[in-house]
């Protein structure tokens, strides 16, 4: 029954490769052409069964998510995705599982023209999927965490908290809906990230929860910030599921949405909104950066006691963190 | 006791970075400058505790090996190592283990000027270390598996079989010697690979055993090859440990040496030997490529019945394979 690594690679992962791929899978390494005037962006993100996703999740969703979480990191840098490698550790080699996993992986890759150029499959006690994605960025540009200035508006894309609620539904084996879909197949904001590179002053993807991730922009930029709870964009599906109050909590703390949090200078506000509208991506202004150290939450304009360490990885057994 | 991922990254893995690193660890991705006229080479290799190394191996050796096995893949392409990312999955966060691991990792990286530019640490049931290394190669060059022609000489660097014997000694908790050292701290042939790029016609690193790895050159190049058992370079330490007969078997089948197998056109034989000698690397001609399909082993000139599938990953529980 078991097939070995080489057959496995040939059967499921070797495909026609893409732009800039001089040599793909099949040698000791891949040979890639970085166009002149472009800088390389490298990101890596690992998903572990039972930690980042339920062990029994549909392998096609595992494949899709493993790529999407990395696409989201590239989006947060403003980069265009180009190539990826896959390090896949599995307890066993089951053709049906592998075929579904590869299908999901390539769906996510194909949505953004990413070529799989290398990989390593190994045996281990648990499913561990590490994807490294390489992207391209015009030299001396890029959306860093450190560029936010006092006065900048703070925006988020889409709606927040859906994926965290979706995960709880999946864990309860509840019926599928748009919340579970957001956990299974997160849409990285790849086009938005590239389009606002040069417009937004700072960016991060929301993988650990808005409060925790925005905190990183605040610290890296050396600014303060205030966000208003009532402005947090939540979906009707989330409010239906959790109620208004809990929905806001999901929105503040829930990871796995892979929306972007972007800061925008006032002078570029109109341009930013126009670009997002042109892409059909909803963006919501939830607050602004200021000079008062720290990140504050207000509710109807009054400061609310709030603190969250986010989902930090080794602090407790069942929390997850993505870089 | 437990420290969280962010402290962990800061404490052990953040260091001054290297050439071409516009932005290292600490944002959503690393920004890297590929010099014009250079192509990028990407390799990835995963090491799993209990599969690729004994679970109780000194963490400094685990760190060192995890980088070395990737350096070896770059060497086999003729590339110059530049940057790496680390995906580290651990059952727990133990400062002493992490400090030793990071030290070993940086020893290997520093030997070849490699900067760690990103990573992801996650919790899992087993130690899984995936390193992706990025290297540089002058455009339109590179040591591929597919360039061997009939008539080319077949060379290996160093001595073979030592690391496999060393692993068996480590598993028996025997005294340390030069065989165990070769398993713990394999020396990737990074300088040799770069120096013979343009001289050798094909190359591969020996990670799964000479016979299995040379077979890949034979298949990729569409040639045949014959190698002579008595010519296989074995160390005195290996012969002492295993005897002459077993030493040759270790040399044919043992993985983990991370020597290079190179094929060299007759017209470049002298130049090849000179370049290797200039680097102080022993190279041994063990046979030649020909027109007769398949890889044959001779002993004193007579063909020996021999076949090996190498260490293929999902075929049995306790074998290991590296790409």
From TrEMBL, chains A, B:
It is an enzyme of class 2 (transferase). InterPro entries: PurM-like_C_dom (IPR010918), PurM-like_C_sf (IPR036676), PurM-like_N (IPR016188), PurM-like_N_sf (IPR036921), ThiL-like (IPR006283). Its EC number is 2.7.4.16. Mg(2+) 4 binds at residues 28, 73. Pfam families: AIRS, AIRS_C. Belongs to the thiamine-monophosphate kinase family. This is Thiamine-monophosphate kinase. It comes from Woeseia oceani.
């Amino acid at each position: 029954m078991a097939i070995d690594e080489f057959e496995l690679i040939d059967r499921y992962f070797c495909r026609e490769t893409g732009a800039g791929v001089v040599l793909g899978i099949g040698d000791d390494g891949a040979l890639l052409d970085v166009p002149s005037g472009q800088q390389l962006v490298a990101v890596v993100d690992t998903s572990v069964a039972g930690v980042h996703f339920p062990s029994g999740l549909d392998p096609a969703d595992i494949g899709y998510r493993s790529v999407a979480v990395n696409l989201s990191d590239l989006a947060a840098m403003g980069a265009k995705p180009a190539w990826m490698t896959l390090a896949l550790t599995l307890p066993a080699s089951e053709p049906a599982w592998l075929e579904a996993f590869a299908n999901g992986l390539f769906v996510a890759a194909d949505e953004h023209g990413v070529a799989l150029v290398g990989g390593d499959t190994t045996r281990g006690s648990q499913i561990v999927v590490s994807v490294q994605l390489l992207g391209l960025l015009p030299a001396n540009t890029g959306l860093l965490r450190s560029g936010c200035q006092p006065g900048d508006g703070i925006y988020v894309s889409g709606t927040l908290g859906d994926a965290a609620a979706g995960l709880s539904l999946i864990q309860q084996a509840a019926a599928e809906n748009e919340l579970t879909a957001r956990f299974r197949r997160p849409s990285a904001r790849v086009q938005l990230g590239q389009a606002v590179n040069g417009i937004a002053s700072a960016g991060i993807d929301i993988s650990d929860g808005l409060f925790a991730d925005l905190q990183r922009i605040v610290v890296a930029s050396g600014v303060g910030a205030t966000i208003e709870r009532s402005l947090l964009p939540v979906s009707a599906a989330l409010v239906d599921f959790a109620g208004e109050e809990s929905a806001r909590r999901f929105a503040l703390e829930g990871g796995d949405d892979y929306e972007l949090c972007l800061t925008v200078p006032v002078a570029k506000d109109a341009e930013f909104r126009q670009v997002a509208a042109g892409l059909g991506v909803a963006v919501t202004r939830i607050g602004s950066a200021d000079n008062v150290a720290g990140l504050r939450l207000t509710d109807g304009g009054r400061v609310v006691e709030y603190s969250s360490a986010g989902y930090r990885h080794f602090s407790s057994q069942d929390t997850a963190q993505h870089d």
